[in-house]
Structures are given as C-alpha cells and as structure tokens.
UniProtKB/TrEMBL annotation:
The lineage of its organism: Eukaryota, Metazoa, Spiralia, Lophotrochozoa, Mollusca. InterPro entries: SKA1, SKA1_MBD_sf. It comes from the Eukaryota. Keywords: Coiled coil. This is SKA complex subunit 1. The keyword Coiled coil applies. Belongs to the SKA1 family. It comes from Elysia crispata (lettuce slug). The keyword Coiled coil applies.
C-alpha cells in the first residue's frame, strides 16, 4: 500500500503537536523532561525532512522510468512496421546515374573488380535495372498500378534484366565466334542501333520473346509504363522499333 508525502507529513505533524501539548502540560520545573521532548521534536523534524527528500528522489526516478517505457513503446512500434514491410527483393544500393544520352559508356566496358586477394562477395541483384523500393512502389499512381503487386513488378524487372544480360552477352562477342542463330541476332542488333542509341543498353519486343517467358501484352506494357514513371527505362522509337533503353548505372 503506497503512502503519499502529505500523509507522512500529517503523521509527523500529529506527533509534534502531541509533544507540544505534553510540553505545555508538564511542570515548568521539570527541565530534564522538557529537554528530552525538545530533542525528540528535533529528531522527528530531521526524519521528516529526510523522508521528504527520499520521496522526491523516488518521484524523479519514476518519471525517468515512465519516459523510458514510452520510448521503448515507440521503438517497438517502428520495429514491427519495418518487419511487416521488408521487401522480398532488396534493391541494389547503387545510385541512379544520369540519363544514358549524357553518359556514353557501353555495358561491356565496365571496369573489372579490383583483385585484392580477398574473396569477393557476389552481389545479389540486377546488372542493368534496379528493383523498386517499397517507397517507390507506393509513389506510383493507383490508376497505373491497378492490381499489380510489389512482388509482381520486381519479378518482371528481374526477368527483363536477364533479357538485357543475354542480349549483350551476344553483342560483346565477335560475330565469327557465334553460331548461326546468334549470328543472325547479332546482325539484327546492329541494324537496330542508331545515333540515338549509342552507348545505351536497350531491348526490343523480339528480345523479350527470345530470352524470356514474358509476352508483350497489355500487362507487360503497363509495367513498362511504371518503369518509365520510376525512371528505370525510357523509349527510343524509330526505324519500326520501340526500344526500351535503360539508364547507365556506371
């Protein structure tokens, strides 16, 4: 059972009043009894003062504990939010570069990693495109997303990135080293290139058909609209082709 400071003070006050009354009723000649009463009163006053200080200290400690409890509650709430919103695919941490028209660098000219004698940790992610973050997906207008989910869009990004990889794997080879099928593809890639595509990695609808299970239907076109909205790809039209270029990351 908790006792307040006021109750403690009231108890001491009653004791003091009783002693005062005893002092008044005592014989004025009994100096020894009066001295003892005065001493008792002083001791009670000192004890009351010490008790008051202890109560104030305990009150301050209780306030600190209440503040700490509140901070922990806020931290737990944020932690639960993070745990519930961790994306199944984490994006690369590379910062998006300027548009490819401003940075003219072929994908096959990327610098090789520096060999330091320490085993390199393989990065999990895409070579040409970035996965969308949760915040980027939330920023997409609702009419544009429709029923598309965050995981669905990133799954398509992963497949499209493999299309870029397979195409430029062929494009980096010498034509003479390729088989007949890839020689035809190699020649087709050269015919698709223009001055506007110089240094720009791009794919066309036929590449998507050749190197993935995706179909260029309304759903995929809608996803390309989302990727353009998020600044991952852009279109280069001309010569009967719609080219989906991606921004240079290096």
């Amino acid at each position: 059972m908790e006792i307040s400071l006021a109750e403690i003070a009231e108890g001491y006050s009653q004791n003091i009043n009783m002693l005062k009354m005893a002092k008044a009723l005592s014989d004025s000649g009994n100096t020894e009894a009066l001295a003892q009463s005065a001493k008792t009163v002083d001791e009670l006053k000192m004890e009351l003062s010490n008790t008051s200080k202890s109560v104030r200290r305990e009150a301050l400690e209780l306030k600190k504990l209440e503040d700490l409890k509140l901070e922990n509650a806020v931290f737990l709430e944020r932690l639960h939010y993070v745990m519930e919103n961790v994306p199944s695919k984490l994006p690369q941490q590379n910062q998006k570069a300027a548009p490819a028209q401003q940075i003219r660098q072929e994908p096959d000219q990327r610098p090789e990693p520096v060999k330091t004698g320490i085993s390199q940790v393989q990065m999990i992610g895409c070579q040409y495109l970035d996965f969308l973050t949760v915040d980027e997906f939330k920023s997409i207008p609702k009419y544009m997303k429709g029923r598309l989910t965050y995981d669905k869009v990133n799954s398509v990004i992963e497949k499209l990135d493999k299309v870029y990889v397979e195409k430029y794997k062929i494009r980096r080879h010498k034509k003479s080293s390729l088989n007949d099928l890839n020689k035809k593809r190699f020649e087709g890639y050269r015919l698709q290139e223009t001055e506007d595509t110089k240094g720009v990695p791009f794919i066309v609808e036929q590449d998507i058909t050749d190197f993935s299970s995706l179909k260029m239907d309304s759903a995929l076109r809608n996803i390309f609209t989302i990727l353009r909205h998020c600044g991952l790809v852009f279109e280069i039209r001309g010569g009967g082709y719609t080219r989906f270029g991606c921004y240079t990351r290096y």
